[in-house]
Amino acid sequence: MCGGVFAAQPRPEKAAAMRPETPEPKRFAVRDNRLLDLRAPGAPVFLRGMGYSPFLIGESPLHGDSPADDGRYALHLPMMRQMGVNYLHLFPRHMPAGFFAALDRENFVYGQDIWLSPYESDYLEPGYQERQMAIIKEVIDHNYRVGRPERLVLFSIGDELRPASVTATNRAHPEVTAFTGKHVVVRHRNPSEVAMAMLIDRAIDYELSRYGQRHLYCHTSFSHIGPISDRPDLEVAAEDAMLPDMGDLICLNLYTYANAVRSSGPGRRTGTSYQGYLEQLAWESHKPVLIGQVGFSTSPTEPNPKVPGFGGHKAEEVARHFVQIWRDLHTAQGKEHFCGLAFFEWQDEWWKSGETWDDPAHHAPEDPEEWFGIFELGPDNRLLPKGRVPDTVRRLYTEQADAH
User: Fold this and answer.
1) Strands 216-222 and 152-159
2) pLDDT tens digits for 117-134?
3) Where is this region: Disordered (predicted)?
4) CA–CA gap between residue 225 and residue 212 (Å, rounded)
């Protein structure tokens, strides 16, 4: 690969499709490999997103908490609206009624991430499939009972599978290479891809049978395990690479410092490895691509020298990086294949990674996972902007919103 020229790269052999008799969603749909809002026909949708997991100091999903139903949403969502955000990528499974009321007032749409346990030795094991389906059904039900189906863009089934578990699953089931469900059909796949296709198929069928409609579906992956497999730092063998196209669109968490990204060739316009990855991804993709996460941790330390870039960033660096990422995307060859980007994330999350029971009460300087917010949490959970980062998001999402 050189200078963003991919003509010599063969099209992937892997195939995935929805069965033609499966109805499309009522509002947000994919047609001709473009994300459309059927209520506003015209140009394809581009989601200017923000990752949103508003656990405040002392709250933790590991304690069984959901974000409380209080005044934080009446504060946060108008701020996001002023920044030009039009899409929230939700990580908590059970957002409260007050959040959805604020969502209505600010006229946002949203996507619901459904995190499933990646720490398993076999994603095809029937017990695993049943446990994850119970979670999926519960989250779908919550979005109809409390949420706003008319504002929901997508459900993401599973998020960043563990490389060792992908390999173990694939070695345990070498005979599994295809799946034909009621709605999803995949061919020439590895067993881990089939496992995610099975869960998506069952989720679609559950939503259709219970509620008479469906939304868009995807599985969220990350560059460490694919889909681009011709990289020396991939964390799985090439035959085990995950192509997350078993739903309606491709959702990928794509960090500039991540494996398979930093080893990419230069992009055609900006010369960065990030643009180089985006351009090859666009060339190889046959469905719209949503960048579900991109961001930088401002942890005081960068604790792991084997993972350069994971932590230790200054706020002024983050602002510059966001501008570069926006330029990389919007000047990339094949930019029309991308249907959105969500900066990760709105605020720091003190509860991560849950090493101790009182972790939510302490902001650990050695844990980069706690420091990805564009705001930090101050006394009384006040939002404190990290330098010019929030204003940079506003500028990109408002002044340059027409760049795509």
Assistant:
1) parallel
2) 999 999 999 999 999 999
3) 1-23
4) 35
